Amino acid sequence: MSFPMKRVATTEEDSPGKRWGGSSIVLEVQVYNTDTNTGETAEVPAESVPSSGGVSQDEIKLLLGHTCKVDLEAKYLRLQRLEQSSSICVNAGMRRSDGLSRLNGRRYCIPTEVVLMHKAAGGPELVGKSAAVNLLDWYDVDDVIVLVMERPILSGNLLRYMNENLDLRDESKAKIIMKQLLEAAIDLQKKGVFHRDLKPENILIELSPAVPRVRIIDFGSGCIFNNNRYYYLPGTHTHAPPEFLKRGEYTPGPITVWQLGVLVFEMLDTSRRFSTQGFLKKEIQIKMELSYECQDLLRRCLASKPQDRATLKQLQQHPWLNPTTSTIFDYYFF
Question: Computed over its alpha carbons, how large is the radius of gyration of the chain?
Fold first, then answer.
């Protein structure tokens, strides 16, 4: 059983008076059409799906999903359209009610994105606790897969935030976001999740009274993490690392560091989008107006050879993010 990767999505806002995990929520529903590009599922034996031992019915329901279209329409009401592109449509909406689900001893085909989101953020009872957005529910109805997800209130994607808040004159805001992105990337790796498409459109910035908070969305290009080489790269090829363009292969750590470097580059040069081909041809270059520390971090992320890139842990200790560690780094400029 497989599901194509073309997505149409709706978002659902919690109705007045409803609460999930002690705070009001916004849900997002993603619908996968089955007429294009085959996607992935994970076949899970029933015995490997927790059924007792302190595991809640909510967690069981989350993993197994539902197949009743009537239940879906009874629980969620679609409202006004918020966003649309060639492959995704986002609508506001409202949750009406909840349902229950039980195991029956069968083997289950679970969409990979469901597995990844559960590994990354946990169940509905943990809404808002991790950088990854939470999956609240999902349905397999007719010829579509519907994912019901948390949508943080007062948030927008990083692309919009960059255009409105970031520029070369102020690196401090980019540092706040980069620190959180590094923490999120390391946390996902520990949980066995490989996102594979970290870009401004897949990162929400949740605005709070204190500092902007990073939330990771859209695990549709992701897979289970391992240290093997990968030969298929879904997602944004304009940001693909040099090793994929040259040899058609990549590994999780170096490509994640490359994508984080691209994010910092775009956060501090909002005049244009990054292109790997343009960067390799030196049509796009690191701005000399940036601080020496920032230039060094970008070069350590955007090294053309994957073995020359810093690791995620090394980046956490970089002097641009931690000025007190500057003495243990040797700056180099090309």
Answer: 21
**Cβ–Cβ under 8 Å, residues 274 and 293:** no
Give SS3 for 155. Answer: strand
Range list for CATH 1.10.510.10 in the chain = 155-328
The distance from CA 174 to its chain's CA centroid, rounded to whole angstroms, is 18
> What's this model's pTM, rounded to 2 decimal places?
0.73
The DSSP secondary-structure symbol of 310 reads P
143 noted as active-site residue = no
Q: Which residues on neighbouring strands pair with residue 157, listed in sequence order?
A: 204
Catalytic residue among 71, 98, 167, 197: 197
d(CA 65, CA 144): 13
Provide the 3-class DSSP secondary structure of residue 189.
helix
pLDDT per position as a tens digit, 143-189: 677 788 888 888 889 998 988 887 767 899 999 999 999 999 999 99
User: CB of 130 within 8 A of CB of 119?
Assistant: no
As given in the structure block, the two tokens for residue 48 are 């490997």
Per the CB < 8 A criterion, the answer to whether 196 and 5 are in contact is no
> Which helix (H) or strand (E) covers residue 70, if one does?
helix 69-75
SS3 percent helix, strand, coil of the chain, rounded to 5, is 35, 20, 45
| Distance between CA atoms of residues 66 and 82, nearest Å | 26
The string of DSSP letters for 221-287 reads T-EE--SS-B----S-GGG--HHHHHHS-B-HHHHHHHHHHHHHHHHH-TTS---HHHHHTTSS---
**CATH class held by domain 155-328:** mainly alpha
- Phi/psi of residue 12, nearest 5 degrees: -125, 125
**Of 6, 17, 12, the residue nearest 27 (C-alpha):** 12
Which range, 16-30, 66-80, 265-279, has the best average confidence (pLDDT)? 265-279
How many of the other CB atoms lie within 10 Å of CB of 29?
24
Identify any residues that bridge with 103 across adjacent strands, giving them in sequence order.
none
